[in-house]
Each structure stands twice: as C-alpha cells, then as structure tokens.
Amino acid sequence: ILFDYSSLVALSFCFRHLYDNFFQNTIILSLWYDNPTFPTWQRWVTDCGMCVSAVGLSCAGKFRCGTSNKCIPAVLQCDGKEQCENGEDELSCVRLSGRSSVVQVQRSGLWMTVCSDDWTTWLGETACRQLGYNSYVESSFSPVNSIEQELQYVLVTEPTTAYIPHSKQFGVQCCARCDSCTHVCVLPDCGRRPQYSSRIVGGNMSRPGQFPWQVSLQIRGEHMCGGSIITSQWVLTAAHCGYGSVPAALAVERIVYHTGYRGKLDYDVALMKLSTPLVFNGSMEPICLPNHGEKYEEGTMCWISGWGATENGGGPSLTLRFAMVPLISTKECSQRDVYPGLISQGMICAGYLEGGVDSWDSGGPLACEDSSRWKLVGATSWGIGCADVNKPGVYTRITQVLSWVRQEMEVCLSSTLPCSYCSCFT
Question: Which overall architecture, per CATH, does domain 62-188 show?
C-alpha cells in the first residue's frame, strides 16, 4: 500500500526488513500475491490463512445468520435479542442518513429517525461503535424541520413509526482516529486536508497532502490498484484488485470482499483491515463515507486521483495525479452509444462524454467535496477504452454498499465472529 505520505522508507512484509525507497517520497507497504484461480462461488482454505466464505444461501423475506445459515423472521433483526448463534442479527442496526447525518435505527424491519430529549454520551459511544468507529466525539442538535422530510420520523417505545413530537432531533459526529486509551478524539474529523496549501488521462500532478486518503496497492513494487483510507485500520478498494489472491503481509490483517461480488461488474468493492492502526498527521488522513440516502446530482464536480497511466497503453505514473470530472446520471450513462444495459443502481458514472479525461486506477477514489469535507462517493471499477468519446469511468456507488461496509467494520473490528462470516482472507 503506497500512501501519500512524506517519508522515505518502505516495508516488505514477506522478508520483514526495511529498505530505502525513492518512489515519490512515500511509504510503501508491499503486498505479494500468488494469484491462483478460484471458482467464483467459493474460496478455499490454504496454508496462507485464507478463509472459506458462505455459498450464497438465500432466505427470501428473512434474515440469514451468517455463521449457521439459519433463517429468522426479518422483524426479529435488531430487536435487542440475539437469535443468531453469534449475534449477527443485532449488527448493522444504526446508520447515519441525509446531509445532516441524522441517526437512524432499525426496528421491526423499518429504519426510524431517533429523537431523544435525554441523549447521553453513552448512547453516542454505542452508536459510533455500531457504525464501526471506536470513538465518539459529540452529538449535535438541530430543529426537526431542518432535516429531509423523509427522515422526520422517530423510534418510539413500541415498534411503530410516529411523527416526531419533540423540538429537536440529534446527529452524531464520529471520529476515525482517536486515543485508544481515553477514547477522546485528538485530531480533526475525516475528509479534511490540513497540510494542503490505473489511468488518470488528462490529469495533473498533485501536491503533498492534497489527497491524504489515497493509497496504492502494489505487487512486488509495481503499482496495481488504488484505494482510500476510511479509518485508521480500514482501506476501501475494488474487489477485482485482489480477488482470488492471498496476501502475505504483516500490516494487512485481512481482506474482506463484498458478498455479492462474483468476479463480475456489480459489488466491485473490498475492504482491507490493517493490523496496526495508521497514525494520522495531515499528510495521511481518512476520507469520509457518505451517509445513507445522500444524493449527488448530475453535473456535480468531483475528483479522481491515482498513479495510473497518463496515456493509452502507457505504464503507471511515478507521481500521484488527479483530475476533476462531473457526475453523469444513470440514465445518460445507460444510453445506447454509452453503456447500454450495463449500468446498475450500484454504479455511478463520472467523466466527459466528449472524452479527454478518464480514470483507470482501479479501486481509487471518486471524491466529492461537501461543506468543506471530502466524501468517498465512488471507487473506480471499470470502463472501456482510455478517455474515449462516450466511454466515461464507472465507479462502485458507495451509498449502495454502505450498509455492508459498516457491518464489516463493526464485525471484523470486534473479532467476535469467525473469519468465514466476514468473507475475508487473513
């Protein structure tokens, strides 16, 4: 993993020794892969520590327990009682929604906005843990009529919805990096660039700290894919970047693939958990995840970055480059002369239909700025050609996989469930 970081050292996990590196003043955490061929429906256990994932069993209209494959009624999920052997039915019960980060909880199969006149620090800490963070910063309050209309509902004592009778609803601000002993946040929030004063065709070279969440996944020192730091222990990338590969790495504890990914185009997303938390310092910072239901309009200008080739057929760039691209609607991206029949709700397109600027740094970020905070709207997935006319870049839409991301961070951070439930490699 190559970080946009101002040091001149590299770590090789296979040999576990330090050596000098002169690649753009960076830290390189090299991943070595044997790249075996795996069936798309299973992963084999090997002496490298790979885990077996479930074989995609279905529980139509019900909730499936990941470890036992037991099916339980959907209304029993998030009811405060564990019906699954390892309590999977009580995970992913909290989410942040809308632009104002409204807290919602799941109850009886419904997502309801939480409204409380007696909100406590303990509740804030609990909500943040269930979102995959290990720390709570603070709660903020705002009038009910200031949030999106569809969020103006409340969780009451009975499992029903009701219009909010209170004058305020709460939002929780979580921190991606904090003091592990005191649980007090000591650094600014995600998506900030405090030190800012595989193909990025038409892109420019970045400045130090401009994209502090950007990482590079490498094979024997060669750039393979991009990725984004989302917390001190988690990096998000494309599933196809490491699908069917075994990492022999000290710092990467496990790789988690989306359970819906089968080597095709949909659900092309993966998480990497680092065994040692990163220390954020301005040059290395996490990017924010979007909230549930957050929408980004067609034409919104966002940024792509990476070390991909700067021309068709060329090798990777030696410097981190970036380019600004507009978001393209699903309707326009599905047109007959663009990508007919290929764009799903889990994808988002960005780029110029007239060509000239494109991204091919697989797994790298599509980042959009929102209220001086940067959010990970997409992860580079696929495309046709190289900055060709009517062939924009296609990205995994992060809001569509947000529940999975939150659940895997919550599950795997706690390490209470077996690796097979996480669909991961260790």
Answer: Roll (3.10)
